Amino acid sequence: MPHPMSARFGRLLIAVAGLALAGPTVAEDSPAVGLPLEEQIQVCAACHGADGNSPQPGTPSLAGQPALTITNQMIYFRERLRQNDLMTPMARGLSDAEIQALAAWYADQPLETPDEEPDAELMGKGQELANQHRCASCHRADFSGHEQMPRLAHQREDYLEQAMLAYREHTRGGPDTTMIEVMREISDDEIQALAHYLAHWEE
Amino acid sequence: MLTLPSSRPTLSHLALAISAAGLLTLPLLATSASAEEQQPAWAQGRSAELAESPLAPHATPLTVTAPDDIPIDDLRMPDGFNAEIWAHGMSGARMMALGDEGTVFVGTRGIGRVYAVTDNGDERQHVIVAEGLTQPNGVAFKDGSLYVAAINRILRYDDIETALANGEVPEPEELTEAFGLPDDQHHGWKFLAFGPDDRLYIPVGAPCNGCEVDPDTHASIHSFAADGSDMRVEAHGVRNSVGFDFHPETGELWFTDNNQDWVGEHGPNDELNRLSESGANFGFPYCHGLGVIDPALGDASSCDGVDLPAATFDPHSAPLGMRFYTGEMFPEEYRNAIFIARRGSWNRSLSAGYDVQVAKIAENGERAGLSPFMVGFLDASENTFSGRPVDVLQMPDGALLVSDEQNGAIYRISYTTPDYVE
C-alpha cells in the first residue's frame, strides 16, 4: 500500500474523528515529529534530562526503563488514552517507529543512583510493603522492570510517590488498570515509604 | 460417561472423570479478602500456593508489525488453502464487521481505535474511524450504519461508507444511555452482532474471574432492538463470550465462552455453545465446561438444568470470534461449519490455541466436532507464539479473513482445488 498517501488520508480522518469524539480539540503534531533521533532527544531533554536522568521534580527519569514501558506510555499519551496536558501534545503525530526508536535509546542509558543517604526506618517499612504487595512479581526482584512494567529502582522518589497517589485516586488513566487495583486503599504513609524504598533500592 | 466430540478427548474425559468422582480438590481462594482486593484483575482467584507463579497475561503490542516481519510463512492449513497478508498496519486488530460496500470495520482493545479497511481491488488502505475509546472491541454493521461497542459506550455511525468515500467520518450517535449496559472494566469489552431477527446481540462478561453475579445483568448475552430498547436476556451463566454467530438454517445463536482461570492448568475447558431456547443457563459460576462443579461456589446439584457445551476446547485457549461458513469457495465439507479463532492461552504452562479451529456440526444439530484449520503461530517445542487470531470473517467471494491482534494484520484464506483432485 502507498504509505505516505494513506498516512495523509489517515491524519485527515483522525482530525475529523477527534472533533466528533473529543470536542474542539484539534490534533496538532508534536514538535518532535519527523526530526532525527538526536534532535528528538533534545526536545525530551528539556524536562527529562539530557541523558534521561530527570533533574525536574515530578518528572520521571527515562534512563534504564524497559523499551516497551516507554513505548506503551507514549502511545497512551498519543492516543489520549492517558490524560496528560504536557505529554499528549509531545506525543501527537509521532509514528510507532519514532516512538520505538526513542524508547530503545532511553532503555540503553544508565540510570544514576540517588546521592543522599536513605532513611533506615522508611527503608525497612518500604521493603515490608513491597513484599506484602508483591511488587517484585511484575517489576522483577531488583525492580528493574520488565517489558511493559516500568523500572522502579532509582526512579525519582517524588515521581514514584506522585504516580502511586494518582493510581489510588484514579486520576492516572490508561487502558491498563492493574496498578489501580494494587493501590486500592493504600495510605499516604505507605506510599511515602514505598517511594523512598524503591528510589533508594540496594541489592 | 458422556462421550462428546472434542479436539482433545483425553483431556475433556479426564475433567469429567475428576468431577464425577468428586475429586476436584484444587487450591483455591486461600488468599485473604484484602489481599484479593489488592491484586490485579487477572490474578483474582490465584491461590496463595501459586502467588509466585510466572503465569500472567501476555502484553498485547500497541505498535504495528512491519509487513516483512509478519509471520505469514508460519501458517499451515489443509491442502488447497492459502493464506496471504490482506491488510496490515492496524495495531491491535480484533473483531471485524463487513459493510454493504465491502468496507471491513475492525475493533481493538488497548489502542482504543476502530479502523475501516477498504479494498480498491489491488490493495487495501485503512483509516482510523475512531480513537481514544475504552476498548472498542465490538463492531457490527446494519442498514448503512456502523455500530461500535466500547466498554462504556455504544456509538452508531450512520451512512459511514458514503462518508468514508468522501474522506470523512460522520459524527456518531451516542446510544450509550439507550442501551444502559454496565461499564465494568473486567471482562467489559463487548462483542456485537445482529441476529436474523434484526436485533443487536451483546454479551456482558462476569466482572471477575469467578464470582456470584446478578444473572440479569452480568455473565449473560443480551439482545436489543437496534435503538437500544426492548432488552432481553438471551443466555445466562456465560462467563465471558467474545464471539458468536447464528446458524444459517436454524437461526440458532452459537457462541464461544472463556472459562475460569486459576482453577487448574488442565481445566475447565473453554466452550462452544448452542442456544436452544432463549433464557437458557450455561452454568457460570457454579458449573464449568463439561460439568465441572466449581470447587468454591458449587455443590452436587450445580450442573442440574445447565446446558452443556456443543464442543470444548483446550482449557484457557481463548476461543473468541467465530462465523458460520456459507460461501462457495471452500469445499462442500465446510458448508455451515464454524470457523473459530483462538487467541491462545496464558493461564497454563504449556501454551494452547493461537490458531483457527473448524467446528463441523453433528447431524442432530446439537453437537460439534473440532479440528485444527489454520495453525503454525504456536511453536510447541519452544512454547512461544508469533501471532494471535481473534476473529474470522467470510467475504463475498467466499474467502475467509482472519484478524491477528499481535501483528495488527488481517490475513485472507482462499482455496484452490489441488491438481491431484479430480
UniProtKB/TrEMBL annotation, chain A:
<dbReference type="Pfam" id="PF00034">
    <property type="entry name" value="Cytochrom_C"/>
</dbReference>
<feature type="binding site" description="axial binding residue">
    <location>
        <position position="48"/>
    </location>
    <ligand>
        <name>heme c 1</name>
    </ligand>
</feature>
<feature type="domain" description="Cytochrome c">
    <location>
        <begin position="18"/>
        <end position="110"/>
    </location>
</feature>
<feature type="binding site" description="axial binding residue">
    <location>
        <position position="87"/>
    </location>
    <ligand>
        <name>heme c 1</name>
    </ligand>
</feature>
<feature type="binding site" description="covalent">
    <location>
        <position position="138"/>
    </location>
    <ligand>
        <name>heme c 2</name>
    </ligand>
</feature>
<dbReference type="InterPro" id="IPR036909">
    <property type="entry name" value="Cyt_c-like_dom_sf"/>
</dbReference>
<keyword id="KW-0732">Signal</keyword>
<dbReference type="InterPro" id="IPR050597">
    <property type="entry name" value="Cytochrome_c_Oxidase_Subunit"/>
</dbReference>
<dbReference type="GO" id="GO:0005506">
    <property type="term" value="F:iron ion binding"/>
</dbReference>
<feature type="binding site" description="covalent">
    <location>
        <position position="47"/>
    </location>
    <ligand>
        <name>heme c 1</name>
    </ligand>
</feature>
<protein>
    <submittedName>
        <fullName>Cytochrome c</fullName>
    </submittedName>
</protein>
<feature type="domain" description="Cytochrome c">
    <location>
        <begin position="121"/>
        <end position="202"/>
    </location>
</feature>
<keyword id="KW-0813">Transport</keyword>
<dbReference type="GO" id="GO:0020037">
    <property type="term" value="F:heme binding"/>
</dbReference>
<feature type="signal peptide">
    <location>
        <begin position="1"/>
        <end position="27"/>
    </location>
</feature>
<keyword id="KW-0349">Heme</keyword>
<dbReference type="InterPro" id="IPR009056">
    <property type="entry name" value="Cyt_c-like_dom"/>
</dbReference>
<feature type="binding site" description="covalent">
    <location>
        <position position="44"/>
    </location>
    <ligand>
        <name>heme c 1</name>
    </ligand>
</feature>
<dbReference type="GO" id="GO:0009055">
    <property type="term" value="F:electron transfer activity"/>
</dbReference>
<dbReference type="InterPro" id="IPR024167">
    <property type="entry name" value="Cytochrome_c4-like"/>
</dbReference>
<feature type="binding site" description="axial binding residue">
    <location>
        <position position="139"/>
    </location>
    <ligand>
        <name>heme c 2</name>
    </ligand>
</feature>
<feature type="binding site" description="axial binding residue">
    <location>
        <position position="179"/>
    </location>
    <ligand>
        <name>heme c 2</name>
    </ligand>
</feature>
UniProtKB/TrEMBL annotation, chain B:
<dbReference type="InterPro" id="IPR012938">
    <property type="entry name" value="Glc/Sorbosone_DH"/>
</dbReference>
<dbReference type="Pfam" id="PF07995">
    <property type="entry name" value="GSDH"/>
</dbReference>
<feature type="signal peptide">
    <location>
        <begin position="1"/>
        <end position="35"/>
    </location>
</feature>
<keyword id="KW-0732">Signal</keyword>
<protein>
    <submittedName>
        <fullName>Glucose/arabinose dehydrogenase, beta-propeller fold</fullName>
    </submittedName>
</protein>
<feature type="domain" description="Glucose/Sorbosone dehydrogenase">
    <location>
        <begin position="221"/>
        <end position="412"/>
    </location>
</feature>
<dbReference type="InterPro" id="IPR011041">
    <property type="entry name" value="Quinoprot_gluc/sorb_DH_b-prop"/>
</dbReference>
<dbReference type="InterPro" id="IPR011042">
    <property type="entry name" value="6-blade_b-propeller_TolB-like"/>
</dbReference>
